[in-house]
Write a structure and sequence with these properties.
Layout lengths: L2 H26 L4 E7 L6 H16 L8 E7 L4 H13 L4 E4 L2 H8 L7 E4 L20 E4 L6 H12 L5 E6 L7 H11 L6 E6 L3 H12 L4 E5 L5 H14 L4 E3 L2 H5 L4 E5 L1 H16 L15 E6 H6 L6 H6 L2 E3 L1
Parallel strand pairs: 1-2, 1-3, 3-4, 4-5, 6-7, 6-8, 8-9, 9-10, 11-12
Antiparallel strand pairs: 10-11
Helix pairs in contact: 2-10, 5-6, 7-8
């Protein structure tokens, strides 16, 4: 028998076995399952709204219909740390079959409250670096998922900001230390790369709007300054305070979310968060059907998009090089 024919037969047999297993499972276990969902941002956040739609649609395609065989309990923290911890406790007390979390801080809060309920995270930085898991390939404990980009992306943000705004000589790294446990990792990598781009780095830890206004006003007093906003951003603070201040002071800024550029930010180099929610749906499905967390490796994003808000560039008087614009995956006019 030829190798291709053999592989085809084996592959066909494997698929048939999976289908038979799923059919038997659906006949043997029809009870309602429960999914907990801890979202660090607000219910009105457009990116999270899109993520909720994608996850629900993905689960429905896999046979999990809300109200029929799946009950979903969602909690929104609206970037409030105390509220996040309260909601984490509420969800764990419900003893769901699995919990989805939307940030490293949310995942850590859940891990502090349960070692048994499986957790599938979406977003956050390097999970090994911040202690969510130790083994990426075979996660131990009860946690796996789809994190944000690996820390090595940090120097790429600086490179892109410098290319788009060559005059920038001083870059402030903006982050909320309460919401961004990966910030020290990103900062160290950016500082290491900075001399090669002729850039001075300023750390800008901010916890509220007052901190942001004071820090950015002070930064803007020095010429040729720019901003690099680390993930995960405080969505409210970013869109209501950072983006307007950057425009007011004509500060070139790069973000880690397309949604921030759609809201008026200048640049973003970001992974597709919706794709991570599609992956989360597949993992939730497999856990509900009996898979162990250790069988579900952590998966980093592999596709990134460069997004440029041309309207913002014009409003701030920035002329972005044509070659840079041609490389962009999306131009927002």
């Amino acid at each position: 028998m030829r190798r291709r024919e053999f592989v085809g037969l084996v592959g066909g047999a494997a698929v048939s076995a999976i289908l038979r297993s799923r059919a038997a499972w659906s006949q043997d276990d029809r009870r309602m399952r429960q999914l907990g969902w801890l979202i660090a941002r607000a219910e009105t956040d457009p990116l999270e709204q899109a993520g909720r739609t994608v996850l629900r649609e993905g689960l429905a395609k896999l046979g999990w219909i809300e109200g029929r065989n799946l009950r979903i309990e969602v909690r929104f923290a609206a970037d409030n740390l105390n509220r996040l911890h309260t909601h984490a406790a509420e969800l764990v007390n419900l003893v769901p079959d699995v919990i989805v979390s939307s940030s490293a801080v949310a995942t850590k809060s859940l891990q502090q409250r349960t070692k048994d309920v499986p957790i599938v995270f979406v977003g956050g930085g390097d999970p090994a670096a911040v202690g969510l898991v130790q083994n990426i390939v075979r996660p131990e404990g009860n946690t796996t998922g789809f994190p944000g980009p690996e820390p090595s992306i940090a120097s790429k943000w600086l490179e892109l900001l410098k290319e788009a705004a060559p005059r920038v000589r001083r870059v402030a790294i903006v982050f909320n230390p309460d919401l961004a446990p990966t910030a020290p990792i990103y900062v160290s990598l950016i500082e290491a790369a900075a001399p090669g781009f002729g850039v001075q780095i300023v750390e800008m830890p901010v916890r509220n709007a007052i901190d942001i206004v004071r820090a950015i006003d002070a930064l803007a007093a020095a010429p040729d300054s720019g901003l690099l906003v680390l993930p995960p951003p405080d969505a409210t603070a970013t869109r209501e305070t950072i983006i307007p201040l950057a425009a007011q002071h004509r500060l070139p800024a790069i973000y880690s979310s397309r949604a921030d550029v759609a809201a008026g930010g200048l640049l973003a180099y970001a992974a597709d968060q919706l794709d991570r929610y599609r992956g989360a749906a597949s993992y939730v499905d497999r856990i509900l059907r009996g898979a162990k967390v250790s069988e579900l490796p952590v998966q980093f994003p592999t596709k990134f998009e460069l997004v440029v808000n041309v309207k913002t560039a014009k409003a701030t008087g920035l002329t972005i090089p044509e070659a840079f614009l041609l490389r962009a995956d999306e131009l927002i006019e």
